[in-house]
Amino acid sequence: MTTTSDQSVSDAVTAGAHATEIARSGASNLRGAAGGGADPARVSAVVGAALEGIRAAIRDHKVTYEEFDAFKQWLIAVSDTGEWPLFLDVYLEFEVEKVAAATQQGSIGTILGPFWLDGQAQLDSPATLPMRDDEPGTPMILAGQVIATDGTPLAGATVDIWHTDADGWYSGFASKPPAGNLRGVVRCDDQGRYEIHTRKPAPYTIPLDGPTGQMTQAAGWSPWRPAHIHLLVSAPGHRTLTSQLFFTGDPYLGNDVASADKPELTLDPQPTGNGDQVRSDRDFVLEPEA
Ligand code: MBD
Ligand code: FE
After folding, report:
1. Minimum-distance ligand to the CA of 114?
2. H or E element that contains 149
3. Which among 223, 142, 239, 216 is positioned nearest to 182, based on CA atoms?
4. pLDDT band at 30 (very low <50, low <70, confident <90, very high)
5. Pocket test for ligand 1, best of 160, 182, 204, 259 (most atoms within 8 A of CB)
6. Domains by residue range for the chain, with CATH
7. Going by CA atoms, what residue is nearest to atom 3 of ligand 1?
8. In a 3-state reduction of DSSP, which class is residue 142?
9. What confidence tens digit (pLDDT) does each residue in 223-245 have?
10. Which residue ranges have their beta carbon within 6 Å of ligand 1?
């Protein structure tokens, strides 16, 4: 893992290097092992279409040599900063997810993104995520049940959850939160029920000091994602659901830089009467493995 003590290293480089290290092994891509095969017709069709898209942009917009050189330098910077996982997950993953979702049953999901980490705290429901003594933000309970498409409660289900703190930082990728903060793998009870105590996350901006953020701002696009909770919901013999949950009233809903928010994934947490604590209930439906 990249050191976070060197303050001269930007958050973009710190996050990028770590995300690249994970993506290199393929471990972050839980939906598809072993990538595209070597079928020449498919390579020609897909790569050809992608290249033609770029050539069309050059023709249609009369791209100059200065712009071509700037493009080269930008691509090199994406590599140098380790931002390929960030760039690809922000600007392309949602289309891949749509393709995958077209043949999936059960709860609607969305993209994984670049910030999942393996090996986090294993907790039994009801569980409190690892957090600092003075963890800022609104205390929040997320609870529900994991069931199969035929309605059977799924004993042995787990909910792998990760999200930013109330300042918008991910542990493991930003220097502020300690390792493992607001991440955990929660084992459901024998009825597939889970209850997770955490803090409400904040909206997130992609790093503005790296090439992905600079491109975004150069185009005048918003670099923000609405506040969200990432989830991987699993049960033996069932397809893992990759999802995220958002919050009603979030100013960035419908304008997510990663195009990953969906109306079906919006929570409306309600006060529990216990201080400023809020709660949302959400069930997940998993389809049997093919
Ligand atoms: C994120 O937090 C995220 O979830 C995605 C998909 C892309 C960039 C940052
Ligand atoms: Fe995220």
Report:
1. 1
2. none
3. 142
4. low
5. 204
6. 9-28+36-290 (2.60.130.10)
7. 113
8. strand
9. 999 999 999 999 999 999 999 99
10. 86, 89-90, 111, 113-115, 204, 206, 225, 258, 260
